[in-house]
Design a protein that fits this description.
The structure is a single chain. This protein has 132 residues and is an all-alpha fold. The protein folds into 2 domains: 4-94; 95-132, no CATH class. Helix content is 82%, strand content 0%. The chain is built from 3 helices and no strands. The longest helix is centred in the middle third of the chain and has 90 residues, at 4-93. The termini are far apart. The model has no long low-confidence stretch (mean pLDDT 84).
């Protein structure tokens, strides 16, 4: 049985190789599990980042809408101010006689409880004034 030590050595080598292979398989399985966990973590992170991106986009759109509304408000206020400026200019250009203005003041005083006879100041009948 001269082949017997050779067979025993071959069997021992195969057992040794099988043990190393099993260790390698265990290491590869652990690595595979860790890679799978990392993949799941990356998927969750990507989902969170997509949500953040959508939120930022909606916030940016809301800000654009707010700025547009602000600009419309400013334009409306500018239009009101321009209209008031035209009215002020028109009133400045309008010339009234001092007697008419004096009569208007006296009529306003009369409505506040003062008793002033406008007939004694004017020779004609008092005219109702239009107060703006």
């Amino acid at each position: 049985m001269p082949d017997e030590p050779r067979i025993i050595n071959a069997c021992a080598a195969a057992v040794n190789e099988l043990a190393k292979t099993r260790l390698l398989i265990e290491a590869l399985e652990r690595e595979s599990k860790l890679i799978s966990e990392r993949l799941e973590t990356e998927k969750k992170a990507a989902a969170v980042l997509q949500e953040v991106n959508r939120t930022r986009s909606s916030e940016a759109e809301a800000l654009r809408s707010a700025v547009a509304a602000k600009n419309e408000t400013i334009a409306a206020k500018d239009a009101v101010i321009a209209g008031q400026d035209k009215l002020v200019q028109a009133l400045k250009n309008k010339k009234t006689s001092p007697w008419k203005r004096f009569g208007d003041v006296l009529r306003c005083s009369h409505t506040r409880g003062f008793k002033v006879k406008t007939d004694s100041i004017r020779k004609r009948k008092p005219v109702e004034s239009k107060i703006l």
